């Protein structure tokens, strides 16, 4: 059974940084692109960042380019999201997905981790 657990969320002031982690277990994930999504109150879940199976290719939503960096450690079945220069509009629950095709999620979700950015 696949299990996904996000961590690293919290409350931060605008301009601050956070690093999210997504630990997955239950199968081998190194053959799949993985990524991060977010969902703000009253809004649909949206794509944030994705990373290729090997980690040598990354892609981002326009609203986080040059601020967020996605990375992965396949030995640990873990994906990370380094978030810098956070803005109040980044406030959302952030979710990890274990299987991406381009920006579309097809894998398992975790429970999410809340990010709140105060102005």
Structure at a glance:
The chain is mainly beta.
Structural description of this entry:
- The chain is mainly β and 119 residues long.
- Helices cover 0% and strands 53% of the residues.
- It has no helices and 11 strands.
- The strands form 2 sheets. Strands 2, 4, 5, 6, 9, 10 and 11 form a 7-stranded mixed beta sheet that branches.
- A hairpin with a 2-residue loop joins strand 9 and strand 10.
- The protein is globular and about 40 Å long.
- The mean pLDDT is 95.
Q: What is the fold's blueprint, element by element?
A:
Blueprint: E1 3-7, E2 10-13, E3 18-25, E4 33-39, E5 46-51, E6 58-60, E7 68-73, E8 78-83, E9 92-101, E10 104-105, E11 113-118
Parallel strand pairs: 2-11
Antiparallel strand pairs: 1-3, 3-8, 4-5, 4-9, 5-6, 7-8, 9-10, 9-11
Keywords:
mainly beta; 0% helix; four-stranded antiparallel β-sheet; seven-stranded mixed β-sheet; 119 residues
